[in-house]
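Note to self: the last two entries modelled the partners one at a time, which told us nothing about the interface. This time every component goes in together.
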Amino acid sequence: MGLLAYGDTGWGDELFFATLMTIAVAATAIFIGFFLAAIFATFKLSKNRLLNLIGSFYTTVFRGVPELLVIYLFFFGGSGAVMYVAKIFGYNGYIEVNAFLTGAFSIGIISGAYSTEVFRGAIQSIHKGQFEASEVLGFKKKIYYYKIIIPQMLRLALPNISNVWQITLKDTSLISVTGLVEIMRQSYIAAGSTRDPLFFYSFAAVLYLFLTFLSMKLFNKLEKQYSRGY
Amino acid sequence: MLEHLPRLLKATKLTIQLTLLSLFFGIFVGVFFAILRTSKNKILYYTSYYYSYILRGTPLLVQIFIIYFGLGQVEWIRESFLWIFLKEPYSCAILAFTLNTGAYSSEIFRSAFETINRGIVEAAEGLGINKMHTFLKIKLPIAIRQSLPAYGNEMILMLKGTSLASTVTLLDLTGVAKHIISTTFRPVEVFIVAGSIYLLMTFIIHNFIKFLEKRYNYN
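The predicted structure of the combined assembly is written out below.
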């Protein structure tokens, strides 16, 4: 257990902060995903053919292409794209995009594709009468979406959101290829310098198991809370 | 970009190979653990439960790293005949994918077995068909039909999962795509070409499963 000592002699503190990093990336990614999903789910549900097509294109591409390939696209293409935009504004220097943002964005876009389907399904499963009743009662669209549709939708979507969170959490391990020091990368560094990969990768597995276990408990609690009265 | 296409297509062959082999072995692992899950023996039940819990709760990347980098550290493995396989990244990748897809498929098969109408099994017993035959000729075909849609998703996930082979030096489609990106600095073009190849394969799997579902529809 000396390998896990806290401080300079062991890897305990490094792995602890790496775990926090994994949580931070996953949380950022899933919120980016929710944001995208809110937009693309609206697209998919709209009556406009073009918007439908854009929505389907997004979910098909990012659910059908390996996560690693998407990460490489943003990792190698991210700073190029930012520099291109900067050039338009008259800045010609080199800009390096932060590894955290690259990772959170690439995982967020993938997570968003899954969330889009979840949101779309949840909205569709809300009874048509709810929409009609809100309109008849004279609610504005914005108000009834916020106060009536979305709260009901969240309850239905929660089990699936829990699934998306688990997928997102596990996908963050792939960001280690970009050099961001999260659990996987830290284990890789520790395994390299101690020549004990079996121990460190197994420990990484335990950390991930702990995180997935914890989030499962949390979501179960949330589900219970949201289904009060049902 | 076009001059790189042959390399990408050649790498696609490895991706297909990895996917098919892992899925093939994974079915056996999946059925095996699904049967354990239905067992009344507590030890067998929990072995299967924790197997699928651990493999589904950790990232595939960790699993492949433990097998490829970790197992070589254990002396008796290095001295045994297993080392012939475990020193090769190719067989390590297939082993990791097989165990991973086996865990997910075991859940799919288990729920398929559970949905089999009890009456059918009782009828088989009443007709004096022995247990082995009931399983092979009655339960298994029904379970296969039931699990087709979910298994189709798992096939697609496995196809995407094989991209991790590139992290243990294998040159699959993603590995080659990365190599081309890092030498030409054309991430967008390479992504479009490699991504399209993946999407095409997803499309084929999707339609193949749809075809099977129609073919074996008994309602």
